[in-house]
Design a protein that fits this description.
- The protein contains 5 helices and no strands.
- The N and C termini lie far apart (about 110 Å).
- It has 2 domains: about 50 residues; about 45 residues, Arc Repressor Mutant, subunit A, CATH 1.10.10.
- The chain is mostly helical.
- Helix 3 packs antiparallel against helix 4, helix 3 packs across helix 5 and helix 4 packs across helix 5.
Length: about 120
Amino acid sequence: MGYIIISLVALAALLFGLSFFLKDPYKELREEIDQLTIQQIQDLYQIKKKLKVLEEELLVNDSILEKQSSFTSGKKQIHDIIKNQVWSLAQQGMDINQIAKQSSLSNQEVQEIISEFVDKGQIV
C-alpha cells in the first residue's frame, strides 16, 4: 500500500512538472480575441470621429441656411403651434391686442396669422 501512495505522489509531481513545459492551447485564441477587440475599438473610434465631423458640418450648413432664410424673408418664422393658438383665440372672440400680449407677438403678426387662416378658407 505504501508503494502505491509513493508512486501516485511521484506521478503527480511528474505531471505537475510537465505542465510547466507544455504549450498553452488557449494562448493563441486569447491573443486573437485581444487583437480583434483592439481593432473593434479603433474602428469604433474612427466612426465616432467621422460622425462628429459630419454632425458639425450639418449644424454649420443648417445655421447658414437659417441665416440666409432670415435675411431673405426679413421676419422671423412663427411656429405652427403658435399660429394655431392665435387662430383658436381669434375664434373665441379675443381682441387682437389681447392675443398679441398672450402669444408674445406683435399686432401685425397676429393680424397676418388670422388673415392667413381666413385665406385658407377657415371662417372666424
